[in-house]
Amino acid sequence: MLSILGRPASINVRKVLWLCHELDTPFVNPPWGDGDPSRELDAPAFVALNPNKMVPVIDDDGFVLWESNSILRYLAASRERVDLYPVAPRERARVDQWIDWQASDLNPAWVYPFKSIVRRAPGYDDARMVASSVARWTELMGVLEQQLQSTQAFVCGDTFTLADIPIGLAVHRWFATPVDRPTLDAVAAYYERLSSNEGFRRYGRNGTP
To answer: Domain GST N-terminal, which positions (predicted)?
Structure first.
């Protein structure tokens, strides 16, 4: 059985849990990194799986893989879910484009304000950094707004794809973080559209920011 190592509250772990729901793939979820001393991420047993000491890590019948978006791509491709991750190069590239945008542009923008406002993490108490990060976050959510105005449905078009998993979770974090937000009608409609998806309700809009 597929093993997904990582605390289930982690946004990156939740990506993989949600996808497994879409794939109807059974899994176990040992909650490494949840504060239990026996499951610390610097434990030799975990470091042997991922030297970066980060979750999630999967073990799929002996195949070990880390990096959440790589895991998403592998699982969708290995389960031959071409509806989620197309085979045609241009269609696949469009899905990859938005997955990579979420990781390289959108995610870094919300890290500082989220850790400051929601997590109250030490070292994240610079009000100027919060303000500048929120401004960048807002700018990037405007990029998503334009895309969703164009598709009027999901990130890559009329149908749900792999890109909607990381971006859907990021949109949930946008609405779950108490910052001043402009009105983004297409993003709000997308959020409600995703909320009809059982996997999103279970692993996204589930009370965990």
So the answer is: 1-83
